[in-house]
Amino acid sequence: LERLVLAAMSLGIARRSVEVMSSYAKERQSFGQPLNRFGQIQKHIADGYAKYAAGKAYVYATAAGLDLASAGNRVDSDGVKLFCSTMGKEVADSAIQVLGGYGYCG
Question: Is the Cβ–Cβ distance between 59 and 84 less than 8 Å?
Fold first, then answer.
């Protein structure tokens, strides 16, 4: 159960990172147009969302199949923690790239 909770925490980090980078890229102007019009920014946002959606599906599927009355849930709970913790870091790193220096001190 603890591994699933840690995975869900990483999922929350990824979700908020996608929200922040998406809204920032919509508001911030560069070369006379919003940042979200540039391909590399779109890639960061799209990859972040796709990773978040995959992690969410994995967390929900693992939670639905978790049997607290018996042992032997380690493979799924270990896998979801491994995937989501790495995914959360990658999405947060993408958000820092989109936000530029604002991601460090804002």
Answer: yes
